[in-house]
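Throughout our pipeline, every protein is held as a single compact record rather than as scattered files. Nothing more is needed to write down the fold, since each code stands for a local backbone conformation. For reference, a complete record is included directly beneath this paragraph.
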Amino acid sequence: MTRSSISVVFAGSGGAGAMTAGAIFLQAAARSGYYGMMTQLFGAQVRGGEAAALVQLSIGPIEAQPDCYDLFVALDWGKIESFAPEIPLSEKSIVYHAKDGGAIAPSIAKTKARMIEIEMTDPQMTALERALRGKRVNIFAAGFVGTLVGLSEKSLKEALAASLGRKKADVVAGNEKALAAGIAAAKRQTENFLLAEANPGKRWLITGNQAIALGTLRGGVRFVACYPITPATDLVEWLSPVLQKLGGKLVLGEDELASINMVLGASFGGTPAMTVTSGPGLSLMIETIGLAVAAEVPAVLIDVMRGGPSTGIPSKMEQSDINLAVYGGHGDAPRIVIAPMSVADCICTGEWAVYIAEAHQTPVIVLSDQLLGQANEVIELTSKRPAAATRRTDGGDPKTFKRYAIGPDPVTPMPRPGTPGFGWVGDGLTHNEICVPVSSASVHAAQMKKRADKIARFEPGELWGECWGNGDTAIVAFGSSLAPAREAARRLTAAGRPVRVVGLRVISPAPIAQLKKALAGTKRVVVLEQNLGAQLYHYLLGLKALPADAESIARTGPLPFRPAEIAAHLGHDHVNSS
């Protein structure tokens, strides 16, 4: 018998190679024509902490993490207790662990999963080879599990070769030997985890962070300034060489304050510019975001959210920067906040962010998160792209040019600096129409209204979000919480209890009219989000964008929502929650 999907965990201490094992396994599956997704669990330590690669394979597209994992491969037991609650197992799960891996972790033993001990080291490897080159149990594990599920030896070897790159010959030989040992060991097993035949096609294997970077490059970003911060750093690592090939520049600032200020400088000079950060970095950028609002200078800020407050959990997900993104700053400083709805949607949303910023002369904050940003997924090639837009640079007649003119259109021309007859100053002080700082109450009010009108007139069109299903119960969610919500809705709908899901791509200004239309006819509305304060729920409720009796399901990270728990909650009687 074959199965349509399987979920596998490769776990071990930091440095044991769990992520590499998962990446090779996923890439081999992609080469074989399967859909797949890998998410990551790791601690803040560089080495010696916990690490796990959570991989799912399927004959069809994958969105949500499973309720329970089928296979668990322990490279060692390390600090597995640190993240065991994030890896649900059951009595139907099977755990493979090394003979010399030590005592089974208590949390894993409690799951009642079936334990199978295997030799993960090539028995022909000499003691000297082990001492000098390590056991390479992660490569063994990738070959072992890949063979168990039916991936070809060819695809596994190709995936390993791609992972090794230009390593030295002895390193390549040692890893190939470990892979072969894993493949041979799997052939001696009696368990059957074979996947049904794949349906090959042209697809991309891409992370959410890479997808956002790709989208912003499509949108025209050619200058990036940032300061490294988990879990956004790998976005910059992918972006940097590609940006340079396109003639762009990337600068690592000495801190987040310098980075966002450089972004404004580049944008003021006429180049679409961006910074990449996470919650702590966004906090430091708030004052300069106010300057961008006041001076009406475009800027794109990618916030890959993580656990907070303060340093929090740098390597784990949370959706708790909504209040900061929407309201952060002193005074009234309206800006646009959007959020990708999936790994594939990161491309479209990233590109759109650039067009919005340029066309509306405003900072645009993109709220991704660790789970979405670092998920590595096989996706279909998509042609979905937002309509291109550029900044307005034609100042008209130099004699009547006013950079901050008050008139019927709040988006006023911003000629490139150095254009003869069209000089202007990007000032954070209250200024009049010709950029002169003033303290007049009437001028202050007029410029405040100009900037507010600009944001209020932002029309997202069909990109405001999406609605799936037509049940009288609706889930409202954004970002990485959408996938489990949609899977829960599919299950309930299949069981005769139709549920609709409303996903928000635009957070601010809230698409109130579109949201109310999407919720028309519902009897129960539930807002699902990964933060303790129910930030999205209270934000939308305060704008009267939700029914007064709407419910909230909100909890802090890093435990992600599972489809089964969402379905179970919706199965309960309607109990209002705030």
Notes: The chain is about 35% helix and 20% strand. Residues 125-133, 573-578 have pLDDT under 50 and may be disordered.
